[in-house]
What does this fold into?
Amino acid sequence: MQAFERQLASAGWRPGLPPAHAGAPARPEPSAARVAQDGFAASAQHPGLLFFHAGPFNADLAQAAAQRLRQRLDELDAPRHAKERLLRVFSALARHLARPGPDAAEPQGRIAVGGLGEHFWVLCSRRLPSDQVARVRARLDTLRLLSADELAVLNPSEHRFDTLSEVAGAPDEPGPEEGDSGWLQVACNSSAPIEYGFSRPLPDGGAQLHVRAWI
It folds into this structure.
C-alpha cells in the first residue's frame, strides 16, 4: 500500500474514499490540489469492495480479472448500463496496467473496484517510466477539459487526441496513439472527470500514477 500513500496530488485527485452514504462527485471541477493518504488501504477495507488485486499484471490476468468482476456484478441488483460501463472502464484500466514498461519486464500494478450508493468506482495504480509521465499527464488533463456532452458523442475507437485537444482548447504533444484510446474509453464511460495523481518522482525519473474513475 505504500506506493499509494503520501503522494502529491493534482487538482483532479481527492484523497481517500468518501463515506458509504455519499454519492459520486458532480462533473464540475473539484477543489484545489491536496495530499492523498492511504487510498488503496482504504479501498481494501471499504464495505462496498467488489474486486482487488495487487501484484504482477499481464494480458491473461487482465482478462481473468474482467471475467471475475463480471461474475461479481451478476450477483448485484444494479442497472445493466452501469454494469456495462463499469466493465468497459475496468477493462481499459486493466489493459493499461498490463502494458509492459521499456525494460519489457512484467508490469506491477494495483486495481480495486467497489460500489458506493448508486455508483461504482475503480481505483488503479502503476509505475510510469520518465518518458511517459508528461504525456500521460497531458492526456488526462485534456480529457478533464471535455464536458459530459462532448464526451457523450465521442467514439474511443475513432477519435485521435489531436482532434480532442482542438475541442478542449488544449495544446497537444505529438506521439504514438497507443494506449490513448483506453483513456478515452475511461472518460466516456465515467460519470465524473477522471481523478489522478502522481507520487513523488522515483530515482530513475519515473513516477507512480494513481487513477480513479466514477461510474
